[in-house]
Structure formats: structure tokens, C-alpha cells
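Predict structure. Chain length: 330.
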Amino acid sequence: MNLGSPDSTEVKDVKRYLDEFLMDARVIDSPYLLRALLVKGIIVPNRASKSAEAYKTIWTKEGSPLVVLTRRLQQALQQQVKAPVVIAMRYGNPSPTDAIEELLQKEPALEQVILVPLYPHYAMSSYETAVEYFMEAVHRKKYRFTVKIIPPFYKEPAYIDALSASIAPYLQQEYDHILFSYHGVPGRHIRKSDTTGSHCLASAGCCDTPSPAHATCYRHQAFTTTRLVTEQLNIPAGKHSISFQSRLGKGWLEPFTDIRLEQMPAEGIKKLLILCPAFVSDCLETLEEIADRGKESFLKAGGESYTMIPCMNTHPLWVKALAGWVQAEA
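Prediction complete.
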């Protein structure tokens, strides 16, 4: 299960997608009436045409990159596991119900579904909402199969191996710095997900202090992924950093990727590698926001070279990791 995409780059389809996405109470966690006013009255009318133009810059002959790449991942995984593999999206198509019905056509006596949310890190606006949306569909339709859910895999050795392997070839070129750009979330989401109610963002070193809260802390998990990958690849501490992209408003996790890209050249970072580990499939946020607009911003600020490392997409080690987790649960 992945995030999803508009059905086309037509404004009407982008409007429909943005409305579904932004009306999710786990994305914009305001009371319903306020959320509806913001989304339907302000954000979507003002943003839909701009988003449609952004999607046009990355759209392929086969369709949305995220959907196309997720289908390719499905096909690659299907070659390694016996059970039928289908895809679902949190927003847009195919829906969880569509995916389940496709499974039932292939396996009428279906007893168990293994749900793999394609989010390495836990966040209420990504992993949590995907799982809840899928389970709502199961309960609403009163399906009788059981569901096993793959947990966030931000520190799983097979994931770290695959991510590291996808990065390694790019380290052969000359670079000054490597930036791990994670999707941003509001700080209040981090606090809401804190199972202890008192740990997350309560101190400067909260992410480094052991706590049960880390099981659902996006910030801690992003830091952990970065630490494990940089240790495995022997990237020196002074040669890498973390930032957060795609912010919508105040109070989001910092530092912000777009601001850092403007600052780095003045700090002597002229040759930059950048990757987006919160995504396993390239999409609007990686291809348009980081590969295109990010590059333009960095070079305009005085940077000399800028390379975006693609998401894992269908990297063989990533497919192998997925297959291992599925087979372990089957």
C-alpha cells in the first residue's frame, strides 16, 4: 500500500485527489468544519492548478510515476513469492476495496492478507492513516480473512542494506555533502503520536534518549535510519545532515530542506548529493520538488553540482527485503 496519485494531470482529477488527501483528519488534524473551510474553501481552489502543472512535469506515458513504480515493485515481488500480490493506495486508485476484491478473485478462499504499508517510518499522516484506512475497508465489508501488518521498517537490516546499496554507487563521485531529506510533519503530530504523552520534543536530546515513544516517533526513526546508513557506508559525521521537506505552515520539523539548499553553497557546500529516504518510490515530492526545484534553488544559490539519488523503487535488494518479510509472515 502506497500513498496514491491523481488519476491524471487534469485539474478536476487533481482537485479530487487533493480534497481526499487534505480532508484526512490525520493529515490536517483540525476539527472537521475548520478543515473543510481550509481545504475546500482555500487550499484546493488555490493549489489545484499549480499542482496539476507540477504533475505534468513528471508524468510519464504510463501515468503517475508513483503508481507506475509501485506496479513495477508489485511485479518484481510477485516473481519471488507464491501468494498473489496486489497494490492499494491510501488516496486515489486502486482503493483497498479494489485491491481486496482483486485478491478474492484470485483466491476465493482467502484466509489471510499481509498488508505492507510502503512507509519506512511511522507517522500519523502516512503509515497510521494507511493502516487505519485499510482496516476500515475490511471491517466495513465484513471480510472474514485475518490481516497481518508489516510494521515500520526504518531500522530493519534488510531495509538498511537495500537503502545503502542504492546510495553506494553515487558515493564514487566527488561530493562535499550528502543531505537526507525526509518528508516533513508538524511537531504536534509527533506529540500526538507519543505513547508516553511526555517524551517527544520535550527536550533537545529526546530522540537519543531511550523511550517507548520511539516506536511511533517519526523524528527518532528518521534519525535512526540516517545513522545506520551512514555508519554502514562510512560517511563521516561532518559530511552528512538531515532536513525536512514539503512543509505546510508553521511548527513543522526543522531544518527545512528548501532553506538548507539556499544556505549550503555559502557554507562551502558546492557539490551536493541528496536523497529522500521517507519514500520508497519516486513521486512528485522527489522528482518535482527535490530533483527539479531543489536543484534549481541550489545552483542559483551558488552550488556547482547537484545529484538526487533515486528512491529504491525496484532495487533487487529492496525487492528481496520485501519478499523476506512477506515469507516470514505467511
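Summary: The chain has three domains: 2-58, 65-153+316-329, 157-308.
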